[in-house]
Design goal:
Helices cover about 10% and strands about 40% of the residues. It is mainly β. The chain has 2 domains: about 180 residues, Jelly Rolls (Sandwich); about 120 residues, Jelly Rolls, CATH 2.60.120.10. The strands form 4 sheets. Strands 4, 14, 15, 17, 18, 19, 20, 21, 22, 23, 24 and 25 form a 12-stranded mixed β-sheet that branches. A 7-stranded antiparallel β-sheet has the order 5-6-7-13-8-11-16, with no helix packed on it. It has a 3-stranded antiparallel β-sheet with strand order 1-2-3, with no helix packed on it. It is globular, with a radius of gyration of 22 Å. The protein starts with a strand and ends in a 13-residue tail after the last helix. The structure holds fe (ii) ion.
């Protein structure tokens, strides 16, 4: 079906009970169309299929006024942005520890550490709350071929979260310039670092990366672009989602010898640039634009190419390998087999 108000085609997956918008941009999430999910007793939409993504899940779900979600745990990494409303989550790692309570409201971003027990509550008796969850579930389901591995797994990632007293107030810089933090209060108020022109990021681009929940695959960053600024043309090796926190602008997408398209966006929209396609983002109007960017970085992580936000340079391994094959073989004495 097509929703004339949003200009985005959607389909409904009866088995998974998901409303699935298609295309590249989902419009105005705070008022986005939702469909009932009887098995979760909630209304939701899943942006899993935007840009044909297969490794990054993005789910918008509602908690009714004064309501709560089912408590559960899962191995997948997740971060949740609060689109509207206020409430709290109860989390714990250890089965025998008391829950830790974390309050949140619209504009906050909270990490759900891998396989920690968690349950969400809406504290507003009159209004629903909308949570936008970014997760790597679909990749894990694919890699391990088992729902139980993700949802009924007793392994504890206590190196990521061990019910520490200061876990939900922690804020510390990491060696590579990120901030280690597990709840960001008011994403719009975060101070970002302006990147110099020679960084090659574009014009008037500020950035801050975050390490949340001990996550390895899910990369979180905030990017702001000044009025009449831009993020330069690039293509990358990650599926990603950009939630527009403020401002408005346009995105150019193109392929060499293929189709090109310009898409307009404004605060409240969700953009998922397709994997491996050239993308460029430009601001319009009088204000800067700020994005919350969440990416599934598993390919760069696995290949050891770092957290590059813009281009992924694949390692060129061949020259070294050929060198090694020209080197003389080690003697038995050199590898310690003989005295
Ligand atoms: Fe969850």
């Amino acid at each position: 079906m097509t929703s004339p108000t949003q200009g985005t085609a959607t389909r409904y997956d009866k088995e998974r009970e998901w409303l699935l918008p298609q295309g590249v941009v989902a419009r105005q999430l705070a008022t986005h169309e939702l469909a009932p999910r009887p098995k979760r007793k909630a209304r939701a939409a899943a942006f899993d299929e935007l840009s044909g993504n297969t490794t990054l899940g993005v789910h918008l779900s509602e908690i009714a006024p004064g309501g709560q979600k089912h408590g559960h745990r899962h191995v997948d990494e997740a971060v949740i942005y609060i689109v509207t409303g206020r409430g709290w989550s109860e989390l714990r790692q250890d089965d025998d520890k008391p829950d830790q309570r974390v309050e949140w409201q619209a504009g906050d971003l909270i990490a759900i550490p891998a396989n920690a027990w968690h349950k969400h509550y809406n504290s507003d008796p009159d209004n629903p709350t909308l949570q936008l969850a970014f997760k790597n579930t679909r990749l894990l389901r694919k890699l391990f071929g088992s729902r139980g591995f993700v949802y009924a797994n007793d392994f504890r990632f206590d190196d990521r979260y061990a019910d520490e007293d200061d876990y939900w107030t922690l804020r510390e810089p990491t060696e590579d310039g990120a901030i280690r933090i597990n709840v960001i209060r008011d994403c719009l108020a975060e101070k970002l670092t302006e990147l110099p022109e020679e960084s090659g990021a574009g014009r008037g681009v500020s950035l801050q990366r975050y390490e949340m929940g001990g996550h390895l695959m899910l990369d979180v960053a905030m990017i702001e672009v000044v009025r009449r600024g831009y993020i330069r043309a690039h293509k990358q090796l990650t599926e990603e989602a950009l939630y527009v926190l403020s401002g408005r602008g346009r995105t150019h997408l193109w392929q060499e010898g293929g189709p090109a398209r310009t898409l307009k966006w404004r605060a409240g929209d969700l953009i998922c640039p397709p994997l491996g396609v050239w993308q460029e983002h430009l601001t319009e109007g009088h204000d800067p634009a700020r994005f919350l960017v969440v990416r599934n970085n598993f390919l760069q992580l696995a290949l050891g190419t770092g957290h590059g936000l813009f281009d992924t340079v694949l390692p060129n391994r061949l020259p070294d390998l050929l060198e090694h094959n020209q080197a003389p073989a080690l003697s038995a004495a050199q590898i310690g087999l003989e005295p």
